[in-house]
Amino acid sequence: MEGKMIAKSMKMADLVHLNYLLLFVLDRFGIKLGFGDKTILEVCEEYGVDADFFVEVANSFLDEEYVPSSNINTFPAQLAIDYLRNTHNYYLEDKVPEIEGLINQMVTNCKLDRKNVEVLNNFFNVYKQELTDHIKREEDRVFPYVLEIAQAFHSGEISDELYQKMNEYDINDYASEHDNVEQKLYDLKNIIIKYLPPVRNSLLCHKILIELFNLEKDLNDHALLEDKLIVPIIAEQEERLEKLYNRDRQN
Ligand SMILES: [Fe+2]
Ligand SMILES: [Fe+2]
């Protein structure tokens, strides 16, 4: 499955058969099931989704080594940010509560192991807070900035305010402070795999682990889009805007 590239001419149904985890990607684009034999291109057109961008996202989801790319002139900034925001919502509103529910089930089920399970519970709570802070920072500061840059780039006009903003905090500042929330999940998994004494309900324990593995994979893909797609495109747009600003000032 890994390494297999998808193209716009492929049937959307085949994409789901290729990797069912892509169902989450479809959902974040607002694409619903029931697409019959339509191709990716046809379905994207129906939903008003940029098919090139969709293919980049799907390919990067299928292959972690894949480096997504886009043309700086046609990069659909609003669609990309909407996609990333929908993914954030999925983490905070669906996935985290689901894992919390499983951990709570374990707390009530495993009376004799309560102390150990509570270690896991505390660790997860700390993780949840870190993830929430990470997301809040991106949504409050980084995403609005990305949209502002993209908008200025397309209009070919840059205001003094935006130029100032760019000098105070640019996309490379974001890239260098962008921390790996996905890596911390590795420690969380290890608590269960290596250190927690075996609990009676091993099925529940495995369920939690599988959820953590899936979340980690999803977070990896999410960070890849932020680091390898958004950052280079916006950096290039910033550079052009800066030149434009300086040229306009000279005239
Ligand atoms: Fe994010
Ligand atoms: Fe992030």
Give the arrangement of secondary structure elements:
Blueprint: H1 12-18, H2 22-28, H3 40-47, H4 51-62, H5 77-109, H6 114-155, H7 160-168, H8 171-177, H9 181-195, H10 202-250
The structure holds fe (ii) ion (2 copies).
Overview of the structural elements:
This protein is flat. It has 10 helices and no strands. By secondary structure, it is an all-alpha fold. The longest helix is centred in the C-terminal third of the chain and has 49 residues, at 202-250. Helix content is 75%, strand content 0%.
Characteristic key phrases:
single chain, binds fe (ii) ion, mainly alpha, 251 residues, 2 domains
Which range does the strand content fall in?
Answer: under 5%
Output the helix-strand order.
HHHHHHHHHH
Oligomer: single chain
Tally of structural domains: 2
Bound ligand species? fe (ii) ion
TL;DR?
The protein is an all-alpha fold. Helices cover 75% and strands 0% of the residues.
